[in-house]
Amino acid sequence: MKKVQLLSPAGNLTKLKIALDFGADAVYGGVSHFSLRNRAGKNFDFDTFAQGIEYAHQRGKKVYAAINGFPFNHQIKLLEKHILQMADLKPDAFIIAAPGVVRLAKKLAPQIPIHLSTQANVLNILDAEVFYEMGVKRIVAAREMSLKDAIEIKKHLPDLEIEIFVHGSMCFAFSGRCLISSLQNGRVPNRGSCANDCRFDYEYFVKDYDTNKLIPFTNELYVKAPDNNAMIRIEEETGVGSHIFNSKDLNLISHLHEILDSGAIDALKIEGRTKSTYYAGITARTYRMAIEDYYKKQNNTTLYQAELHTLKNRGFTDGYLIKRPFERLDTQNHITAISEGDFQVCGEVGVSGEDFLCKFTIRIGDNLEIVAPLDSQIPLVDNFIGKIYEKNQKYFLVLNKIILENGQELTSIHSGNVNKIKLPAKLPAYTFLRVPNIVLKKMDV
Questions:
Q1: Which residue range is the domain that position 402 belongs to?
Q2: Metal-binding: present as a keyword of the record (predicted)?
């Protein structure tokens, strides 16, 4: 049986390694030119992207190169050069959005398979067929597509691979067709520089030139417009504003069995090239766990959701794949723009596995949960530096001493300290150390 592929975001080389180590079959990323994340901090350059491809191929895994921007006429020569440079790195596919770029890539680098970006907004058999005839191997379906439509496309084009998003940020507009960022910041979403204006907190204002007119805001609140054309702020919760454009985050892990049972989906994609290393690791680890459980005919949705809720999120939604928007009841959140998640990451283990960097406040005696790649061997030790123990099938670290790489000893340490901290035993590279947020609240950190 051919298993579904798990595809994770790789915003830089470290995130690429974490995603692969924590369970992804493949990752996607790009060098900034013509990639839709060209403003992502600490992005790839050609050298680090080549290193990432080598790292993946050594482990029998894949890297897909994003060339999914929409070029202007004056950029075509530069685009041709970019395609050839990326092809020389031997990625496993190009992710492309524009039909003209698909044709150009087929001409310049016919040996590299083409995956069609979600930005192409494929929703139906007609569009899928056009791109299939152009030589596209896989379509990354529009987030607005239903599972029923994916099944119909698969019936009509059984050799065309279908990839869907299962987790991550959702666009306020139709898969990136948004002008707010362009109007307010001069940053164009479909050319890789979205400012995420939909995530901002907005304050409402009204303006009217008729001084005698009352402007209705709600059923009970009215604001009288002045005669000087000034804007009047309508009352809102102090210091909060409103997040009227802010979309919830996609989370389809509870529907994984339904998706895989359909037989129409070849790859599950996680969004988030600009998100944290912890996000890269936890999403890959959790979806890998759920996929493996599916093929074992097991299911533990409660555990999967508990892990995903440790991540910062804007509330979760199952998007458009299973249900249509008009089928929903009241799913809006009027209170917060983002949740901090149920856990706080306190530490991240380095490549050597012998030390870690502090990501939050850590004190001697704190119980830090160890989150490592699945099937990792975690040593159980108790020595002068600390103790690693198992409880309820989870592993924990308690430090008896906080010893820095320079030999200094502390009773507590904070994220501003960039010195490495010694571990009582070697842990897998990129292991995370975390604590529940409820514990932090009790400690008043």
A1: 343-443
A2: no
